[in-house]
Amino acid sequence: MGSSVVGDESFSSSPNFNYDYDVFFSFRGEDTRSNFISHLHMALRLKEVNVFIDDKLKRGEQIYESLLKFIERSRLSLVIFSKDYASSTWCLDELVKIIECKKSKGQAVWPVFYKVDPSEVRKQTGGFGEALAKHEANKLLTNKIQPWREALTFAAGLSGWDLANSKDEAELIQKIVKRVLSAVNPMQLLHVAKHQVGVDSRLRKIEELVSHIGSEGVNLVGLYGIGGIGKTTLAKALYNKIATQFEGCCFLQDVRREASKHGLVQLQETLLNEILKEDLKVIVSRDRGINIIRSRLCSKKVLIVLDDVNDLEQLEALVGGRDWFGQGSKIIVTTRNEHLLSSHGFDAFQLACF
Q1: What is the pLDDT of residues 190-239, one digit of tens each?
Q2: Between 126-136 and 142-156, two packed helices, what is the crossing angle to 10 degrees?
Q3: Is 232 in contact with 334 (CB distance < 8 Å)?
Q4: Spatial separation of the C-alpha atoms in residues 267 and 315, rounded to whole Å
């Protein structure tokens, strides 16, 4: 494994607070700016995550006050502990403010231990101990030493990532980006009408059937039955329950109506944009869309739900084959036509009347 999670912390913040930034980076520039930080920053920017990094500040008299303000106005903080982090009084002051924001308003704080042992940070031993000892020799810093130590100890006990014994920085960056995205862009659950008779029992049954298909390969699951029997409601409930298990998700509702009204190309664009979190408008034809979907999603574990499909062409344009998607993907289709499912290789389950 390229990384591991230590401690225990879940994301939380005030839902009513307005943020200027999604993520605040606290790091020692000389250790990490030109490699790990630049790669992580770029990966987050590509996902349209708004990151505050201190090169956005112009050095001046009010820089410290500005920095504290930006910490307060960030949704969460990533603290990258590297070997010389504690040598910087600037970094230590940042950390004190970050921990203060966590305690006072629930700001999420995630430490990354970049080639340092978490115990060195927690106990201030090794390079961290040496750095604090040098600061203690400076009488001008006497009142700051204890707050710095307390902040280091507290931060080292939070949930984060340890790269101390791994060289796989790319994998670590992917894990961090995934967790940040889940925090700043939480999955929007689909509305499922309340008091629908039998939804819970049916959902448990469908989950059981789907689990028996297996988690290997790409699963094609079809739900069929007459109109008004609850196929869409059940598909939404299943989507809400399992969506967090996938790298990308898309629920296309009323495929029959949308295909007739707007065409398959627009549905292809919607599918890609929902899963990739991009704004693609490059599909000029159905065949072009097929090629793009296959090339962009073939290595991703995705969940796709197509609701109310009534034509084989819709399946061919949107979920043409198992080789379009990564291992572990699930494609779920609701329809009134069992033949559509069997002709496309779906495991079909009939929903009967109550």
Answers
A1: 888 765 656 777 888 888 777 766 667 899 999 999 998 889 999 999 99
A2: 160
A3: yes
A4: 11
Query: 188, 244 in Cβ contact below 8 A?
Result: no
Q: Tell which CATH architecture fits domain 199-350.
A: 3-Layer(aba) Sandwich (3.40)
> Is there a shared CATH topology between the 5-184 domain and the 199-350 domain?
yes
Position 210 scores a pLDDT of: 74
pLDDT over 80 at 1, yes or no: no
C-alpha span between 52 and 71 (Å, rounded): 9
- The tokens describing 340, both together, are 């559509």
Residue 322 has pLDDT above 50, yes or no: yes
3-class SS string, 56-124: HCCCCCCHHHHHHHHHHCEEEEEEEECCCHHHCHHHHHHHHHHHHHHHHHCCEEEEEECCCCHHHHHHC
Q: Which residues are catalytic?
A: 94
Lowest pLDDT segment from 66-80, 118-132, 155-169, 295-309: 155-169
Q: pLDDT-based confidence at 281, cuts 50/70/90?
A: confident
The pTM score is 0.57
- Measured CA to CA, the distance from residue 221 to residue 236 in angstroms comes to 14
Domain boundaries, the chain: 5-184, 199-350
What local confidence, expressed as pLDDT, does residue 215 receive? 62
What angle is formed at CA 179 by the lines to CA 174 and CA 180, rounded to 5 degrees?
A: 95
DSSP H or E segment with residue 7: none
- Element holding 308 (H helix, E strand): strand 302-309
Amino acid at 124: Q
d(CA 267, CA 289): 10
Q: Distance (Å, rounded) from C-alpha 10 to C-alpha 117?
A: 22
Long-range contacts of 49-55 (CB under 8 A, 24+ apart): 49/22, 49/23, 49/177, 49/180, 49/181, 49/184, 50/20, 50/21, 50/22, 50/23, 51/21, 51/22, 51/23, 51/24, 51/25, 52/20, 52/21, 52/23, 52/24, 52/25, 53/25, 54/25, 54/29
User: What is the CATH code for 5-184?
Assistant: 3.40.50.10140
